[in-house]
What we know:
It is a single chain. This protein is an alpha+beta fold. The protein has one domain (7-58). It has one helix and four strands. It has one helix spanning 47-58; strands at residues 7-8, 20-24, 29-34, 43-46. A four-stranded antiparallel β-sheet has the order 1-2-3-4. The chain is flat. The N and C termini lie far apart (33 Å). It comes from Catenuloplanes nepalensis. It holds the Pfam family DUF397. Residues 6-56 form the DUF397 domain. This is DUF397 domain-containing protein.
Amino acid sequence: MDNLIWKKSTRSSPNGGHCVEVAVTPSNLVLVRDSKSQLGPILRYSISSWREFIRNLDRR
Length: 60
């Protein structure tokens, strides 16, 4: 997982507050972590689950 490209959410606060980063693995898993705790827990989602999550956010 060292070669992953992590992208910070555009909604993350610039002063080190609430920061979420997302990366996609070669096997198409979406990984989500807290950027302040990069060695902490990582949530894993299938591409289809992640797309459904994003779709539901867009409806709000």
